[in-house]
Amino acid sequence: MVKIYVARHGxxxxxxxxxxxxxxxxxxxxxxRQQAKDVATKMFGAGFRFVAAPTTSxxxxxxxxxxxxxxxxxxxxxxxLHTARIFADILKDETHDETNVEFIHSDNATSxxxxxxxxxxxxxxxxxxxxxPTSCIPAICGEDKILKTETINYFxxxxxxxxxxxxxxxxxxxxxxxxxxxxxxxxDASILLVTHxxxxxxxxxxxxxxxxxxxxxxxxxxxxxVLLLSEQSSAHKAHVFETQQFNS
Length: 248
Fold this sequence. Notes:
Elements: E1 3-8, H1 13-17, H2 30-45, E2 48-50, E3 67-74, H3 78-91, E4 104-105, E5 115-117, H4 137-141, E6 146-148, E7 153-155, H5 164-181, E8 190-195, H6 197-207, H7 212-218, E9 226-229, E10 239-241
Parallel strand pairs: 1-8, 2-3, 3-5, 3-8, 4-5
Antiparallel strand pairs: 1-9, 6-7, 9-10
């Protein structure tokens, strides 16, 4: 499998107001846009470039200090899609492409499509919890139906919500889709996924075959932070870029 970088979207209106979002489709805040710009700029400074290169070796397009992203895939929710556009515009290699990057749905993809919307990158369905204040989780779910961490209370199975085992299944299905989408990429290729807090951590758990309970307790996946999933990199080295902004 290609090397996968996973970014969480910038802060959205629900994050700022302490509201559980799930599939709610709120826009990025000014801070969220700035978070995405700041992390993308750090990535650019560290040698990351977005260059669609579906079938060729990357040796002719990158220097030894560069990481070429051959594709960017994003959740359909606007907070992730806007973040992905910010990342793509900042990371694109100006010598190869001077136009704004537009994302299309995977149903309309061709073999040359490098900026795609993938439905399975959407956030966890929060069921009846969507739209409620984060502070109400203990009262509604009960202490025995919550996994507590230093920064977040994760509800386990309220009515209508995807469970974490179900998310593991979705993550594995997504990896199968990514294998198919990237089958013509160079073996040394890298891609970027733009997704959400809960699902980003579950992607990490599924990729490294870790317990989802342990992963939820292990680290906070903050707005616009970036993880690395790679067969050549161990799980404990996953964090690439971190922020100090904690949001639910």
